[in-house]
Automatic annotation (TrEMBL):
Pfam families: LUC7. Keywords: Coiled coil. Residues 210-219 have a biased composition (Gly residues). It comes from Glossina brevipalpis. The keyword Glycoprotein does not apply. Residues 293-313, 324-349 have a biased composition (Basic and acidic residues). This is Luc7-like protein 3. One of its GO terms (molecular function) is mRNA binding. Residues 199-209, 221-232 have a biased composition (Low complexity). InterPro entries: Luc7-rel. It comes from the Eukaryota.
Amino acid sequence: MVDAARQMLDELMGRNRNLHPSEAPKTVNWDDPEYCQYYIVKFCPHDLFVNTRADLGACYRIHDDEAKKKYEEAKPSHRKRQFEDEFLQFCNSMLNDVDRKIQKGKQRLKLMQKDQPSGLSHTSKYQEQLNNLNARIKKLLAEAEEAGIRGDVDQAQDLMNLCEQLKDERDAMVAQHEQMITTTKETIISEKLAIKAPSSTTGNSSETIGGNGGGGGGDKSPASDAENSSSAADKKVNAWMQDMGHVPEKQMEVCEVCGAFLIVGDAQQRIEDHLTGKQHLGFTKLRKAVEEIHERRKKEREDDERRKRDDRSSHHRSNYHSGYDPERRRERDHHERSREHNSGHYHQSEKHRHHHKSHHRRRSHSRSRSHRSSHERRESRSRSRSRY
C-alpha cells in the first residue's frame, strides 16, 4: 500500500519532490531495478486485467515515462535484449495459460454436445446458417475497414452496403425462426386446453351420475382420464421443446482470444460488450505485442543477412576490378613455391657435385705428392749408393 502511494506521488509530483533545492536531482537510468521493465519495453501486464478474473494485482515497481523514453532512445545492447526476453517470457506464460483454458473449454463443449439429444436437426441447421451469416458479416466489416485505411472509399462503401444486406437477411431469418416457435407453441397450448375442457365436463357429469345412483365405483375413471390427457399434452409440449432445442442449453462457443464462453448467435450488443471488455482487450494486446516483437526481430535478422551478403559481394567485386583473383593468386603462389623448391634442390645437387669434385681433386693431388716424394726418396738413395 505504501509503495503504491509512493508510486502515485512520483507520477504526480515527480521523483525529486522531497529533494532540497540545494541538492542535485537524481539522474534517470532505465536500467535501475526500481523501474518496471515490462512497462519500459511495451506495457505492464498488471494494468490490463484490473477487476477481472485474470487480475494480476498491482505492480510493485515504478512506471516512469522518462525511463521508458531513455530506453527507446538507447542503442541496441545485450541488456535491452534481456529486457525484451523477460517481457516475452512473461507474456508467453500468460498466453500459454489462456490457450490451455481454450482447449479445455472446447473439450468441455464437445462433451456437452455428446450428451445432448439427437432431435436438434432443425435448431442445428438454423444455428449453422446464423453462424455463417455472422462470419460473412464480420469478414465484410474487416475488408471494409482495410479498404478505408487504404483510401478506397468506393470499395468500402460497397462492402458496407453488402454488409447491411446480410444483416437484414440475418434479422429476417431470426424473426422467422422466432415466429415459427411462437406459432407452434400457441398451437400446442391451444390443443392442450381443448383436451382439458372435455375431460372436465365428463368428470362433472360422471360425478352427478354417481351421486344420484349412490354408487362409488364409477367416479374415478373420468378424473384419471383427465390426468392422462393432461400428462399426454405435457409430454407433447416437452417433445416439441426438445425438437426445437429449448430443453438443452443454448449452443456455446469458446473465444479464441481470451477463452470466454459465448452464446452462438447472441445479440450484437452482448458480442460487442465482450469484444470491448478488459479481459478480451488485454489478451489481444498481449498477442499483438508478442507478434510485433517477433516480426521486428525477424526483420532485423533478414537485414543482417542481407547486409552480410552485400558486403561479401562488394568485396568480391572490388577484388575483381582491382585485378585480384584468389584462384590466380593461389596458382601463382603454388608455382613460386614449386620453383623455389626446384631451385633449392638444384643448388643442393650442384653443391654436392662441387664437393665431390673438390674431394676427388684433393685425393688425386695427395696421391701425386706421395708418389713424387717416394720417387725422390728412391733417387736420393740410389745417388747415395753410387757415391760409395
